[in-house]
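Chapter summary example: a protein plus zinc ion.
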Amino acid sequence: MPELPEMENYKIHLNNKITGQTITAVDVNRIKSINVNPNLFKKTVSNQKVLNVSRRGKHLLFHLQNGQVLLLHLMLGGWMYFGQETDKPKRTIQVRLSFGHEHLYFIGLRLGYLHLHTPQDAEKKLSHLGPEPLDPSFSENEFMDRLKTKHGRLKTALIDQDFIAGIGNCYSAEICFHAKILPIKDIDELNNAAKSQLYQSMKTVLSEGIRLGGYMENPFFKEDKKTGGFHKHCQVYDREGQTCQRCGAVIVKEMISSRKTYYCLNCQK
Ligand SMILES: [Zn+2]
């Protein structure tokens, strides 16, 4: 599932491609992917300029000229492609927004969605989310204070969107590896030095993820060489049975609350 760096990567590319552009046509092939009557959806979204695209946690918000917002969550398996009809991936398209002869394709939206909201409703939908981990105003002290209210496994807290927004299976594993802390550790067992390191590692790993274009394998457009660049930099995520590049031990996978959790038993404590 795309996480903060993947959605930030999409956001950057989308702002390059469609900010200031007008949506010339709307196609909805899967009614379940939207939240209103398809005709109303098309009528409201068509002929609107995209003012900009912003991100909150794992969501993207497309701000339209008429004040309405398209709220996107890709969930598991969802992705996007931008290009001409001839470059279109050979996959089922759930929703297509056209910008003249170029199109934004929404693919793999099963649990994912593209919902139309007023700005107030969109804000309400996102109000439960915890702070943005890369927001400069999210201080180490605030992180520490929030951790004090959490108990149980560290991994479970890191992927709790109400605790901190945007982190999922991949980056929780990578952050814990970077911090040399076991994700299966109980939060109450972490000392202040470990918590401080976690905060630093969170900033470092997520920033690196964005810089390298996230880990999603599908390019966003034809000449896109950036998207997915983080995948080969993953140290533990999806590397079960492979060698730890830091200590040479074998990376293990464990299910925690039915989530795949990867770590090195040797150099993470
Ligand atoms: Zn190791």
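Key point: The helical segments are 4-18, 38-45, 119-126, 140-148, 154-158, 169-179, 192-211.
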